[in-house]
Each structure stands twice: as structure tokens, then as C-alpha cells.
Specification:
It is a single chain. By secondary structure, this protein is mostly helical. It contains 4 helices and 2 strands, in the order αβααβα. The chain has a single domain, classed as Ferredoxin Thioredoxin Reductase, CATH 3.90.460.10. The chain has a two-stranded antiparallel sheet.
């Protein structure tokens, strides 16, 4: 893992810890999101929310991660819109879903 990706991951872990959340338990999905956040940090100097940003980034209007609505989103659906931050219950459900899907085999 590159230094910048590690710093982005550390940033997200600190945010999650501060608010009592956990990061997305699906490592592949989380890795993609971390990559987008890291790219925004490298390109624009800030962690612009990859799911709510304009293309190209509008530095005056686009939200910084965590966005203002992430706590409301987690309260409503168990995770933020970007699927970065989860409450413990939603994370556990996601872990079980990932585990279940990994045991299903294709009949062919």
C-alpha cells in the first residue's frame, strides 16, 4: 500500500472512531472508495466525496468527506451514501452477506 493510501485509510479510521462508526467491511469496495478519495486528495488537496462530487470536481460546491449528511444517512440506512462509514449493526449484516455470497457456487 502506498503512503498516500495509508494516510487516507488512517484518516477514515480516525473519522469512524470519532463518531462511533466502522468502515465498510467489504475490503474490495472500501479499497475502491479509498482510491477515489486518495486521488481527490492528490489532485485537489482535499478528500472530496467521490459519490457526491461533480466531474470535474467543483472545489466550491463539492462536499468533503465526511460530508454534512453522513450521520443522517447512517441513522436512516446504516451506512453513508458512499458506503464508507457503517454503524455496527449494518456492518455486521454486510459481513454476513459477503460471507454468504462467497459460499454460493455457480451451477455451471
Amino acid at each position: 500500500m502506498s503512503e498516500s493510501l495509508r494516510l487516507t485509510t488512517d484518516y477514515l479510521l480516525k473519522v469512524a472512531d470519532k463518531f462511533g462508526y466502522v468502515l465498510n467491511p467489504n475490503e474490495k469496495s472500501l479499497g475502491l472508495i479509498i482510491g477515489y478519495l486518495d486521488k481527490n486528495k492528490q489532485s485537489y488537496g482535499r478528500y472530496y466525496c467521490p459519490c457526491k462530487q461533480h466531474h470535474p470536481v467543483d472545489e466550491k460546491r463539492d462536499p468533503i468527506c465526511p460530508c454534512r449528511t453522513f450521520k443522517d444517512e447512517i441513522a436512516k440506512s446504516g451506512c453513508c451514501e458512499c458506503h464508507v462509514f457503517f454503524n455496527a449493526e449494518a456492518a455486521e449484516k454486510a459481513r454476513k452477506s459477503v460471507g454468504l455470497l462467497s459460499t454460493v457456487t455457480c451451477p455451471g
